[in-house]
Task: structure prediction
Amino acid sequence: MTVESDPKLVRTVCPAHCGIDACGILAHVKGDRVVKVEPAEFPDPKYRRICLRGLSSLEMTYHPDRLQHPLKRVGKRGEGKFERISWDEALNSIAGKFESIAQKYGWPAIAWVLGGPGAGTTKFGAYLRLASLTQSTRVSAWGYGDAGLPCGSRVIFGTQFPYALLFGGLLAGTAEPEVLVVWGANPGESQPLNLMRPIMNAKEKGARLIVIDPRFTITASKADAYLGLKPGTDTALALGLLNVLFEKGFQNESFILRHTAGPYLVRSDTGQYLRGKDIGLEQKEEYVIWDSRTDSPRCRGNTDGLPALNGSFHINGLACKTSLQLLMDLAAEYTPQRTSAITGVSEEAIVKLAERIGKARSVTFVTHMGFTRTYHGDISLRALATVAAVTGNINATFRGGHLPAVLNWKPFLHANPEKPSYSRLGILQLYDAVISGKPYPVKAVWFSFINFLNQCANSQKIIEEMFPKLDLIVATELFMTPTARYADIILPVCTYLEFSDMIAHPYPYIQLQQKVIDPLYETRSDVDIASGLAEKLGFGKYFAGGEEAFVDLILDSKDGSIEGITREKLKRGPMPLNAIPEMDQAFDIPFSTPSGKIELYCERLYEDGQALPVYLEPLESPVEPKGKKYPLSFVQGHSRFRTHSMFANIRSLLELNPEPLVEIHPQDAASRGISDNDLVTVFNDRARTSLKARLTEGVRPGVINIMQGWWIDQFIEGSVNHLTHDVINPVQVKVYEPNMHMNDVAVEIVKFKGEE
Amino acid sequence: MKQRFGLLIDQERCIGCEACTVACQKENGASQGWIRVKTQEAAQKDTPAGSFPELRMHFLPMLCQHCERPPCADACPLGVIVKRDDGLVVLDVEACDGCQTCVDACPYEAIFFDDDRDKAEKCNLCAHRLELGLDPFCVICCEGQAMSFGDLNDPGSKIAKVIASRETFRLKIDEGTGPGVYYRPPKRPRGL
Result:
């Protein structure tokens, strides 16, 4: 909606959240300057909203430190000495360098490291298109803390995200849970609008809220009960809950039969699901169940049989158990006593929580990326989902009238269908590609929407081993971030008010992020930058029409949910996704696991010892700290004052939250002679960081927390990611992509004695 | 009955995000937000009271209480703080001479002092927005949907209905100020 008045009002979208949400914004413009932003109206008023970052976003657009024109490095990398150059010179020099690197090492040696694009679509799509056309390397940002979640979800559900299955009903407003379990997530601070509001609404309607977290978070402050477990022991807690649930017979057998692979038999000798061919049945590749009616094995799918849910069987000399039985055997080892010893949660709380979950008519489990940022966090996600599945608390039946139009990059990728697309590396795999040339050498990186050095694991390694091996570093940036400081060429970009994009949020709406003002200074949008470089590389025709053409490319994708939604109509306001008539009925979700069911047991991970959601100790977080060189578990919470490292330099937010703090329990502080507000040094074998201490009961003894996202320059020395490690979990590589394990780090802390 | 505008703030829904503080600062071009979120019982912001894991943390947004009998108005030697007929207590910043008598007189510490301009500042309940029929800016920007604005004297208003039917409290009522800001206390945790 554009209203001609003084000030002029332009509707747009603040896409600052990391791809999961966005707020409609009404920008007030006087002359060529935006003077105010406010939450824009929605057809359904509950979607009218803004957060403290959105409210302060004009400070970003008009920030005195904004990069204004392209820069070329003239000093040493990291020294911060740059010289102004023209766009033409910048793009020519990048294109020339790309071509010479490609000649020597091949195009895959050029890597596009694209971080969280916010909720934006076209700016991400533009770089993917360029990566695809040049057949270079796209570095996926999933491993930048988020890959643990899909690694777990893919195993048990077959889907990239578990959200719709676990709490889709809560988001859609259709669920009325009796119990809400928020586990390893802090939506009260990190997703207040799309997630905490429905949680509080459900609580108002009577839901009991239980929060499980090593930190007493804002979400925990709203809870009826808080369980403060040791970091990285979530799987043990889940197994302890399963122990009590099975012991007391709280499993939901009809759900397990209908939606899970629980009744399928597993061979004891190979650990693989028994197939028809193994015992001479006609349907050779089919899974086998034990039919209790006839007391004989049968292939699944016979409607007149009654599959046994548990038990051991000998069939033609093969020892077998149902996969549910294997899970029950594992859970039997996790008595409340043993679980309490591992997790630090009391036996009484474990039993009571299990009973509460078991007896409730409906339980909604809410989680996000917190516990999946541990080395075995993928298993933790599976363990939580297993508790939900065994008790029938999964939305396994689809009842929607439309499918959400998810971010769909496909239209961008095959601009030239004759040629293959890009190569793909996970972000942790980039380290090796650059440092040791494995699986192939990467010699140039392009950073967009990512403050790589600040936000990725093991900063010292990046500075000392990775960056020196690169022939070219390009960063598109708003500010001279710690990463930009190491770039050879910096290209200044726009803030959200200066370019157009399509935003598929908040569900079920589509919004147009309308350009409100022209780009300030010499800044350009990412789409324009990609387009300019494409021109130099001979691919200009694939970028004709700029941002608007790319928005149309998505809207014209013929997806039934967005059919008829046009850019012109979106200028007037948000549009809900179309209902698809034939979708408006209930049907069982076919899970995209190999069996098509929720897999409590994954045969593919048998040889890795992870077919079941086994509890494995964290890589570093000391579960038993006594006598350890680094006895403290270090975790990184997410703060409302930043979206990752964005907004860390915004004045009005800094007034409310001026500096990094390390939160430490008073017991741990006392034994180290540390008082509130003391300067301290947190360290391990990798590096050290120094900052101010905050004594609080709000972290579990043995745990310290530093909110992530502060820039390296804002610490006395070091930063959060100087302390983190880049160890790859091979099972995650096998399943999907390796994750960074920011919440699985061991440290010690002492009073600050001066910089190193 | 004449109007008496006021606020209702629900501590059960306040997530302490401070969007109200930023919203106020932006809307009023203020040196700082005139609504401040206090973490109750805590030595430091955003830290809980109690001992791990038996903890509690509640947020209390503090702002001008738009008192029935505002001590700040009585104290102001120039009479630039006025209790209006519609319940608002409004400070005319331009007329303020910076004597700070009002800052000391307010029992709620809700009047701020802008050192740069040498002026007292406080929440005027977005009087400029009310004239246009709009709610105060902090109310529409509240992330937890914890704030409501309305006419306390209209028994049909949403805010008056909640005050009549639910447990609410006002701050320092024994000071005799008659605050126009009502709070709903957080619910007691029910345990596992």
In short: Chain A touches chain B through 51 residues (CB under 8 Å). The CA atoms of residues 491 and 529 of chain A lie 8 Å apart. The first strand of chain A starts at residue 2 and ends at 3. The two ends of chain A are 56 Å apart (CA to CA).
